[in-house]
Amino acid sequence: MLFDTVCLATDFSPISARAVDYVLRLTNAGCRKVVLLHVSDGPKHHLIISEPPGLDADSATIYEDTLRDHLHREAQQLMLETATRFQEAGLEVEPVIISGNPADEIVRIAESRDASLIIVGAHARKGLKQAFLGSVSADVIRRAHQPVLVVRGSDIQ
């Protein structure tokens, strides 16, 4: 089959929701299994830039742990909802939630699961944001050994 196993990296954004629709269309190309991957690089990625004001080191650690647990539970719920859509379409789903560098983990998991295609979303960043933040999708494209489908979000409101 052309795309027997697909690795879909999701951050649960509207762009990722659009990528889910692409995977559902790939059933016509032989897609039977989806490795549904969410990579978190920690609470700082989502909300924390520095220690919250007025908290000592121990309190900040507890705060960070609580936030990390909350984000993990939220990711599990969103993962379940997304996996259900794939299962209802007759696809086998392997949900994976891990922490680490997103590009590193996407490439590693896709390789280890023998995925024939990686699907990632691309947030429209330009100028300095692109230069400083980098691009997970561009990094995955450079390093992956299999084809990468990038779902762009430029027309998503």
UniProtKB/TrEMBL annotation:
Stored SUPFAM superfamilies: Adenine nucleotide alpha hydrolases-like (SSF52402)
Pfam short name (any one): Usp
Stretches assigned to the UspA domain: 3-152
CDD domains per UniProt: USP-like
Tree of life domain: Archaea
Gene3D superfamilies for this protein: HUPs (3.40.50.620)
Family: Belongs to the universal stress protein A family.
Annotated protein name in UniProt: Universal stress protein
